[in-house]
Amino acid sequence: MELTVNGEKRTCEAGLTLEGFLKSQNVKPESVVVEHNGKIIPFKEFGTLCLQDGDELEVLRFMGGG
Amino acid sequence: MEDQFVIGGKTLKSRLFLGTGKYGEDAIIPDCIKAAGSQVITVAMRRIDFNSPQENIMQYIPKDCILMPNTSGARTAEEAVRIARLGRAAGCGDWVKVEVVADSKYLLPDNEETVKAVDTLVKEGFTVLPYMTPDLYAARRMRDAGAAAVMPFGAPIGTNKGLRTRELVQIMIQELDLPVIVDAGIGKPSEAAECMEIGAAAVLVNTAVATAGNPVLMASAFRKAVEAGREAFLAGPSAVKEIASASSPLTGFLRKD
After folding, report:
1. How many angstroms separate the CA of residue B131 from the nearest CA in chain A?
2. Which of B2, B3, B90, B242 is 20 to 30 A from residue B233's alpha carbon, by CA?
3. What pLDDT, on a 0 to 100 scale, did the predictor assign at position B249?
4. Which structural domains are found in chain A, ordered by start?
5. What ipTM score was computed for the predicted complex, to two decimals?
């Protein structure tokens, strides 16, 4: 299936949960916040949210800033 | 003497807020925070880089600090609110530095959009500290909207020019019943002391420490300057005069007058 992640198209296997997708990208789920189709997903739902073809994800984390 | 500094219901010991951007090596940040004695630490929120997904600024920020995510990157109130919500979803408290900047040359904050963002975020329960262009009326609107403090700039971000907005900031300090925190432009400890001497509640420094030759030593210098400036303000600076006034007695010389 195809996802749009941080504005870029990415292909990944079908049936992944959000947590599964992040781990497949070597991203620690507890280190990020995610918007799924414009809605903020609570961390406790990462493991149960099944991604669908065409979904849009914004994956963000804290960076150095003033 | 008790010198309470309370923001958003929290009593703070340190009046030096520290940013975490622009360090040559992020690993130096814990030592800088320790040397600065800072409790309030700012961070930004950005899309992750899938090519280096392990980097995480949070590992360098002590757990007992108050994290204040900024909304940098926001060009409108709506974008600032979105970023603030994401920051809170990361589970690090409800403080936010609202920063709405649409001018990319001088990075001057847009007060009108900032007021709107403050209004929305306060209603959502955030402790809101808006970064702003120094202006008494805009600051009053932010106060009325529920801002916990206002943070006018001393000079444009990252310029290290010092307190160029002194007159306006001083008026804000005198006229507002709200903490005024000078954020941005402070390049040297003496300038931080100047802010504190005129009654600023705190200063927020990033570039001046992060890009110093020795960031840890500079963090320590800023700590002392902020403490010195605060004490001077509390002590009440003596009046400026045009004509000399002898510090030594003018009578009792060896010679006869």
Report:
1. 11
2. B242
3. 85
4. 2-60 (3.10.20.30)
5. 0.90
